């Protein structure tokens, strides 16, 4: 009887101890994460507020910076698209690629950045494995699309400056649309298809995948192939094309300065001969030559601006791809999570950087941005795109009238005497 009572007491103790068993490791992490989050949220009113306020300040600062990047990327690239649509002067073949690149950057800001922002805000993945694959696929897809756009722009500038006679034949609107179609379709082969089919990762990662985490764990072949198609091969093409562009641009600049010096000497000689013979001299520069010189200068400015955009893209994404390839090929390498966050958002920042480069280095875009913003925020401004084109024609006509040839000025001075 005593033994059975003891056994009953032992069974009762055992049954009572079951509910207080330690939870699984992931639940412990979630509990500790929630407790730390609650402590952070209520730290200012409790006794431990003095220890938690730096974390609260850093969290709010990080959130504000990431939100600023997202908003700037959306609004800035939207401003680029609207300005090109409103200004006929900007509707050239090169800007077809610029507008398409701006659209890709908007999709990066609206499709890719918010999910990464949610991970930083909640400190875990809350959308499930299907959305995780969609997010990783979109990230790879839009990154590849952006750099392929820049590669197309470098090819366009190469023909415009290095081979100007072949440019109207090669770079037609049809060819531009073919290049844009290839730019948007080709990255699917390294983004959505292999990620949703499971070819990008290892079997161990698929079997041990958790619902509340979204780790982009890739195998070595996919890391090499995807980084080569997305970054290394297009980046190499861009570097060589822009080296050829700047080499030819420098040669043309030197030839232009030499031609200007010869024209000045001819002008001075003709003026001296005209003064001796009592005849008016002829201006050395013809309208056709002036138009060619202005066109060449405009092409050089466009190449410089787009070269700066290419350099900014490489500076923003080169650290990420170096980190991506090295960590994928090294099985024993360890790194803090904050490094991954910095690498990703440095690349995302490039989507917000391009409109700033346009506004700072290109006068046509700067004027278009000013006019578009004025029409957007000023209720008294009702100008349409046709009105802007008419104003541009009046400005060009006025500037052409100001460039009066020297013989005409001498005639008007003689008439005034």
TrEMBL record:
SUPFAM superfamilies: Family A G protein-coupled receptor-like (SSF81321). One of its GO terms (molecular function) is octopamine receptor activity. Keywords: Cell membrane, G-protein coupled receptor, Glycoprotein, Membrane, Receptor, Transducer, Transmembrane, Transmembrane helix. InterPro entries: GPCR_Rhodpsn, GPCR_Rhodpsn_7TM. One of its GO terms (biological process) is positive regulation of MAPK cascade. It is found in: Cell membrane. The chain crosses the membrane at residues 64-84, 96-115, 135-155, 176-202, 222-245, 305-326, 338-361. One of its GO terms (cellular component) is plasma membrane. Residues 76-358 form the G-protein coupled receptors family 1 profile domain. It is a multi-pass membrane protein. Belongs to the G-protein coupled receptor 1 family. This is Octopamine receptor beta-2R. It comes from Papilio xuthus (Asian swallowtail butterfly).
